[in-house]
Write a structure and sequence with these properties.
heterodimer; A: FAD/NAD(P)-binding domain; 7 domains; five-stranded parallel sheet; about 20% strand; B: mainly beta; Rieske Iron-sulfur Protein; three-stranded antiparallel sheet; binds flavin-adenine dinucleotide; binds iron/sulfur cluster; binds FE2/S2 (inorganic) cluster
Chain lengths: ~850, ~120
């Protein structure tokens, strides 16, 4: 039997996904497949198009490879536009020839709508949809100062960000009274506008452009209906998209009133041999401008071509979660409360810049929609309530209140029904995940490989991990606590082995208690344990190869292979003379200089071989290493306290210096930060640190286990009104207990949350000495304080250790060829194209 | 036809750091030489350039073994490269160049292409 021919017009995201699905199905064997793409490039990830300006190439964004197409036997015609369809003869035309089909799939996507404004065809009037468009924008930005985006929707704001990243002054001009009119309400739009303006993008709402003329100070001038005008060097139109239905229209297929190729539940058009999927298709009068529904159509059509009439396209959820110019925005379901009887609950924290709105059904039982601006941490939970019709709790407002105000914690994976969609890109439900686990997947990686979940837009990553972890745990799959393949022990167990058996080298430990030669997980972990137990110099011969590069070279490696240097400035107090030395050294070596959040100075761009020279100078001026490279105490930040501040009640700087000098150099499972404030006004932000100290009339209050960063946590009040000595004793004990019992790379916050009994237990151990180890912990700490040495001082004085800092051991004068520099805001920074 | 090669002397035994790497400059650009005294062979040489960042840093990674295979972990983004084959364990489509290496008296020598001019930006 000779094969039939299937032709796909459009090699975009959906067309490609269809090919992946179809080629893996039985029917693929019956067809010759031909694909036409108008763009030069193989299908690429348009959703992440903007990353092209961030340095991604077409290869990074590509959805498949040419080899794959060849392997599947697909004839791929790129850069070839289909210009006509003759449905009677089942042929189609391109400038290069005429082709016959038995089945035709239109996946032509959409095109950007350019409003009919006089002058919209001038040079430097552009759109934002394809790689070629982006190249054109980049070219136009040469020599330009300002850029305007017409349209304040989702894509418009993304385009504005792109203009900003090209170094242009960016403006957004929106016809409606607010940004993202489709997804947001007045309050949400106002907050988004505020945040975006803070980022330096100027927003102009309620502006109708009447004409684009030549500019006086810039290339172009936009004239508005209210007689105002805006001069700009380039314009990007992002005023919505229109389905690319021209071919279908010309060949007489049924088209919707406002465009779009009409399809049925199996993605077939008014001609049974012609099908349409993706953004060009119109289903029940609806166009879907997102990728997930397009993928669903692709799967549906592939099933239909395999004779499956059961699978049907039944519409799609249009909820969106995104980060626009770094601002979280989420919109779920009926965000505008158009359902009759719908009621609203709003939470608006102008201080923090968070806005949340829930739209709930008349009976208060189900969530119909939601809007989030400024913080998307509630999105996953709300989406699951909305999609699965899960009954809302009695006080639904708790879902959007901050936890500290009685808000509910996120919806646990157990509460979701098996039909709950976890990954909408690849249509993976909770049931599918269980299926994969049934079939033998026993970790996150294999579930991802098996189901493809979270390999699309990536928005579902956190949720997927929760579902998988909780299910594995329930099935008694021991989530292994082994450090790595070389040691069947946790960090705490290893610590014990080292201490009890007096083990002093990695070699001894691995030959007695492990197997193989070690790796980048266990070596640094053991190095940290050895350091805490015996406190030998980290560049001692036995320890060198165990360390992470930052520890080995006692500086922080940056992306081009150079290092940054952070000398210790205890408590943030520094004399003018020392400050001048920092400046002089930075100037001599042309180091990029920045003040850190921990009240010190970070000097960037030193090469390996410069490090010892620079440190010689710093040490001569009285500086010590700041351990910014180590998992150890970083800084003790402080406010100025009662020596200067009229509110201060204790000497916070003095205490901060005392603490920093005591704990400097201590190796820990993760970095440790501290701060001291001179009164309850808390100017040093001590409650966001692992150890926070706040002065009181009678002494000090101690807070423990807070942190900033990715997952911020307020520290918990641990003890009140301590004297200086009590404070230090208490910190000694908590620190040592943490160092001894925490897991590798576990911050104090997570450590404490995982301690059975939590804060109360920790209080018993430390304040009431319930384990009887208080004295031992203090003694251990005392020993470490007594053996402190500045690692850099020891290193620069030892010629053997200095040998490690040769960039190329056989070519002292050879500089690293990839380290190229440019100047920005008066300082040097690396230029580095990723290979 | 096999290209002409030569054994370039790059450093001495004293320059090596046990269980770790050092970088040398060769006619073929920067190369990382590793010395793992508890294995046989004990010497390995791979390109010093981390393909994921384009930076010359691989000699400064932590060495070890994964499932018996000798590896170095990139100090920047932590991918592991086999010291034997240069293949990246996390993504086997990526591999770094490897060089035959031998100990000649006190000299460490690498086999590099002869007379190959490598253009080097200043
Ligand atoms: C900047 C940007 C950001 C986005 N962000 C998101 C997001 O965060 N989330 C989300 O879900 N969606 C997002 N989208 C939308 C998403 O990219 C689209 O939904 C998706 O690309 C649609 O896929 P498609 O295959 O239907 O169309 P397309 O990807 O547009 O592919 C259609 C292809 O067909 C070709 N073609 C058209 N006519 C012809 C012809 N006659 N002959 C040959 N070839 C032809 C076109 O050149 C094009 O390559 C974004 C889009 C853009 C531009
Ligand atoms: S915390 Fe108190 S003492 Fe410290 S600077 Fe602020 S107001 Fe002054
Ligand atoms: S929802 Fe996009 S990858 Fe899962």
């Amino acid at each position: 039997m000779s094969k039939k021919t299937l032709i796909v017009v459009g090699n975009g995201m959906v067309g490609h996904h269809f090919l992946e699905q179809f080629c893996a199905s039985p029917a693929a064997a019956d067809f010759e497949i031909i694909v036409f793409g108008e763009e030069k490039q193989l299908a690429y990830d348009r959703v992440h198009l903007s990353e092209y300006f961030g340095g991604s190439s077409h290869a990074d964004l590509a959805m498949g490879t040419l080899e794959w197409y060849t392997e599947q036997g697909i004839q791929l015609h790129l850069n070839e536009q289909v210009t006509g369809i003759n449905r009677e003869h089942r042929t189609l035309e391109t400038p290069r020839g005429s082709y016959r089909y038995d089945e035709l799939v239109l996946a032509t996507g959409s095109y950007p709508f350019v409003p009919p404004i006089k002058g919209n065809d001038r040079p430097h009037c552009l759109v934002y949809r394809t790689l070629d468009d982006l190249d054109a924008i980049r070219a136009s930005s040469e020599g330009a100062r300002t850029g305007v985006v017409v349209g304040g929707g989702l894509l418009g704001l993304e385009a504005a960000n792109a203009l900003k990243s090209l170094g242009l002054e960016a403006h957004v001009v929106e016809f409606a009274p607010r940004l993202m009119p489709v997804q947001l309400d007045t309050d949400g739009g106002a907050l988004l506008r505020h945040k975006i303006e803070e980022l330096g993008v100027q927003v102009h709402t309620e502006k109708a452009t009447t004409a684009i003329t030549e500019g006086e100070d810039a290339r172009l001038c936009m004239n508005f209906s209210d007689e105002s005008f805006l001069e700009t060097d380039l314009i990007v139109f992002s005023a919505g998209i229109r389905p690319q239905d021209a071919l279908a229209r010309a060949s007489g297929l049924e088209i919707g009133e406002r465009g779009g190729i009409v399809i049925d539940n199996h993605c077939t058009t008014s001609d049974p041999h012609v099908h349409a999927i993706g953004e060009c298709a119109l289903w029940e009068q609806k166009i879907f401008g997102l990728v997930a529904p397009g993928y669903t159509m692709a799967r549906t059509l592939s099933s239909a071509l395999n004779g499956d009439r059961e699978t049907a396209f039944t519409g799609a959820d249009m909820s969106t979660k995104l980060k626009l110019l770094g601002v979280d925005v989420g919109s779920i379901g009926d965000a505008h409360a158009q359902t009759p009887g719908a009621r609203n609950i709003r939470f608006n924290d102008e201080q923090a810049g968070h806005y949340r709105r829930m739209v709930i059904s008349e009976d208060g039982k189900t969530l119909l929609g939601a809007i989030l601006v400024g913080d998307n941490s509630h999105y996953d939970t709300l989406l699951q309530y909305a999609l699965n019709g899960i009954t809302l709790p009695e006080n639904p407002e708790t879902l959007i209140l901050p936890e500290s105000q009685g808000g509910a914690p996120a919806l646990g994976p157990d509460a979701l029904p098996e039909t709950a969609s976890i990954c909408s890109c690849h249509n993976v439900t909770k049931g599918d995940i269980f299926g994969a686990i049934d079939a033998g997947c026993s970790d996150l990686g294999s579930v991802k490989a098996e189901t493809k979940a979270s390999t699309g837009c990536g928005g579902c990553t956190a949720l997927l991990k929760n579902v998988v972890d909780s299910e594995l745990e329930k099935r008694g799959v021991e989530v292994s606590k082994d450090l790595c393949e070389h040691f069947p022990y946790s960090r705490q167990e290893l610590f014990h082995l080292v201490k009890v058996n007096g083990i002093r080298t990695f070699r001894t430990l691995i030959s007695q208690h492990g197997k193989g030669h070690g790796c980048d997980i266990c070596k640094p972990a053991v190095a940290s344990i050895l350091a805490t137990c015996w406190n030998e110099h980290i560049l001692a011969t036995d320890h060198v190869p165990l360390q992470d590069t930052n520890d080995t070279f006692m500086a922080n490696m940056q992306k081009n292979g150079t290092y940054s240097i952070v000398p210790r400035i205890p408590g943030g107090e520094i004399t003018p003379d020392k400050l001048i030395v920092l400046g002089e050294v930075a100037k001599q070596y042309d180091l990029y200089t920045k003040i850190t959040g921990g009240q010190r100075v970070d000097l960037f761009g030193a090469t390996l071989s410069q490090l010892p020279e620079i440190w010689e100078k710093l040490i001569a001026a009285g500086f010590e290493t700041g351990h910014a490279y180590g998992k150890s105490l970083r800084t003790v930040k402080s406010c100025v306290g009662n020596t200067w501040c009229r509110y201060g009640v204790q000497d916070s700087v003095g205490m901060a210096i005392r603490l920093e000098d005591r704990y400097k150099g201590l190796r820990a499972p993760h970095k440790v930060k501290m701060a001291v404030s001179g009164c309850t006004r808390e100017c040093a932000e001590a409650q966001s640190k692992d150890f926070g100290v706040i002065a009181t009339e009678n002494g000090w209050n101690l807070y423990v286990c807070g942190n900033g960063g990715m997952r911020p946590r307020h520290a918990d009040l641990f003890a009140t009104d301590l004297s200086d000595e009590e404070l230090i004793r208490t910190i000694d004990r908590v620190v040592m207990f943490y160092v001894r019992t925490a897991d590798r790379l576990q911050r104090t916050s997570v450590w404490m949350e995982n301690l059975e009994g939590g804060l109360e237990y920790l209080k018993q151990v430390v304040l009431e000495d319930s384990l009887g180890i208080g004295a031992e912990l203090e003694e251990h700490m005392e020993g470490i304080v007594g053996t402190y040495q500045c690692e850099w001082k020891t290193a620069v004085e030892d010629p053997e250790k200095r040998k490690r800092f040769r960039e190329f051991v056989n070519a002292p004068s050879q500089s690293d060829p990839v380290q190229e520099w440019t100047v920005e805001r008066g300082q040097r920074r690396p230029v580095l194209e990723s290979a | 036809m096999k290209p002409r090669t030569r054994w370039e002397a790059v450093c001495t035994v004293e320059d090596l750091v046990p269980e770790s790497g050092i970088a040398v400059w060769t006619e073929d650009g920067p190369v990382a030489v590793f010395y793992l005294p508890h294995r046989l062979p004990a010497l390995f040489a791979i390109s010093h350039t981390d393909p994921f960042s384009g930076s010359n840093v691989l000699a400064r990674g932590i060495t070890g073994d994964l499932k018996g295979e000798p590896v170095v972990a990139s100090p920047l983004y932590k991918q592991h490269f086999s010291l034997g084959t240069g293949v990246c364990l996390e993504d086997d489509t990526v591999r770094v160049k490897t060089y035959p290496v031998l100990l000649d008296g006190n000299q460490i020598r690498l086999e590099v292409r002869a007379n190959q001019r490598q253009s080097v930006a200043a």
